[in-house]
Write a structure and sequence with these properties.
Elements: H1 2-19, H2 39-44, H3 47-115, E1 119-121, H4 128-133, H5 144-150, E2 166-168, E3 176-178, H6 185-190, H7 201-207, E4 223-225
Antiparallel strand pairs: 1-2, 3-4
């Protein structure tokens, strides 16, 4: 009887280890949080716990592989996005350089324009034609009518002007215009300081519908709006 008890006590631990009925209680681990068993701990696990642990490890590996694949796909997409943004940035830089150059040129022109006279006292022998042809005025004799239109309170006949008269020299493109006698929308649109093209009269008509019912019927002293690119929205 004593011999049988000894044999049972020797066989029982091995049997428990084989059948997974060990009394060892493993500590709880969360693989998703990066918690794993040490080698010594894994060896003490029962067969069932080992299988569960390995299954959890395999599931975590599959999850990590899926994340890696997704990250790789996103990386390729981000590479394309970076290339596109890089191209857009280069285009924007070129546009910025072009705008900067244009702004610098406009600033230079503005500074030059500010130096030009806004009034002129006629000298003996000068007429509107010769005045408009001067470099500091318009550098174009054909632009004399604008001087005439801007000084009608002084000039009755553009062919007859006197030395000593001080005339206004308009520089800016007007945003409004006062209708004179014998003028119509096409004629006004054709003035070089307006549009330089009589065919653009509908722009004036559309901008003044509140005061013009019939485009063929406008009156002297009417104040018309002259739309410009910066006012057309």
């Amino acid at each position: 009887m004593r011999m049988r008890s000894v044999v049972l006590f020797g066989v029982l631990p091995a049997l428990l280890a084989i059948t997974g009925c060990s009394g060892y209680k493993p500590r709880p681990v969360d693989i998703a949080k990066g918690e794993y068993y040490e080698d010594t701990e894994y060896k003490k696990l029962s067969k069932r716990d080992k299988e569960a642990y390995c299954k959890a490890l395999a599931g975590e590996l599959d999850e990590l592989a899926a994340r890696a694949k997704k990250a790789e796909t996103e990386l390729e997409g981000n590479k394309e996005k970076i290339k596109r943004l890089t191209r857009e940035l280069r285009d924007a830089e070129r546009e910025y350089t072009a705008y900067t150059t244009e702004i610098d040129e406009l600033s230079r022109q503005l500074q030059e324009l500010e130096k030009l006279p806004t009034t002129w006292k006629l000298q003996y022998g000068e007429c509107l034609w010769t005045l408009a042809s001067k470099e500091e005025i318009y550098k174009d004799p054909l632009k004399w009518p604008r001087i005439y239109r801007s000084n009608k309170e002084l000039i009755e006949d553009p062919d007859w002007v006197l030395a000593g008269w001080e005339l206004k020299i308009p520089r800016e493109y007007p945003y409004s215009y006062t209708v004179a006698s014998d003028e119509w929308l096409g004629r006004i649109a054709g003035y070089w300081e307006i549009y330089g093209d009589y065919r653009k009269w509908p722009l004036i008509f559309e901008a003044n519908r509140d005061r013009i019912r019939d485009p063929d019927l406008i009156f002297p002293n009417q104040e018309l709006v002259i739309p410009r690119p910066d006012t057309l929205r």
